[in-house]
TrEMBL record:
Function, as annotated: Catalyzes the reduction of fatty acyl-CoA to fatty alcohols.
Coiled-coil residue spans: none
InterPro entries named in the record: FAR, FAR_NAD-bd, NAD(P)-bd_dom_sf
Keyword Lipid metabolism (UniProt): yes
MF term (GO), any: alcohol-forming long-chain fatty acyl-CoA reductase activity
One Pfam family matching this protein: NAD_binding_4
Protein name as catalogued: Fatty acyl-CoA reductase
UniProt keyword list: Lipid biosynthesis, Lipid metabolism, NADP, Oxidoreductase
Domain of life: Eukaryota
Length: 128
């Protein structure tokens, strides 16, 4: 939650203060709305709004009923990416915004250096 949701909210708020910002490009995932049969190029209602999830996680005794909120979601990553898109919708309002939903992200071709990656998850872990 702190990276996908809080980080996205803070980035959107930062973008609101940028006077010469041309556009905001948010990298999500093709799985951010996977409970839906079809995914269109639009915002979807999240299972929890951005501030509701942040409040739950920041509460003194965070007991989040995961079975209630994660029903239909393969994991917390896809779930929080959906909520992060809600943060973009709410906090980046008025900014030209693009949400990219790739199905997979792998190492770089050339930048910052050829083949750069900082973890061994997904296909990178299989190849390594």
């Amino acid at each position: 939650t702190s990276v996908n949701v809080c980080g996205t909210k803070e980035m959107a708020l930062l973008c609101q203060s940028m006077k010469h910002l041309k556009a905001l490009v948010h990298i999500s995932t093709a799985f951010s709305n996977c409970p839906n049969d079809q995914i269109a190029e639009r915002f979807y209602d999240p299972p929890l709004k951005t501030d509701e999830l942040i409040e739950l996680c920041n509460s003194e005794n965070p007991t989040i009923p995961t079975e209630k909120y994660l029903e239909g979601w393969p994991n917390t990553y896809a779930f929080t990416k959906c909520v992060a898109e809600d943060a973009i919708m709410k906090y980046a309002a008025g900014i030209p915004t693009c949400i990219v939903r790739p199905s997979i992200v792998i190492c770089t071709r050339s930048e910052p250096i050829e083949g750069w990656i900082d973890n061994y998850y997904g296909p990178a872990g299989y190849i390594a």
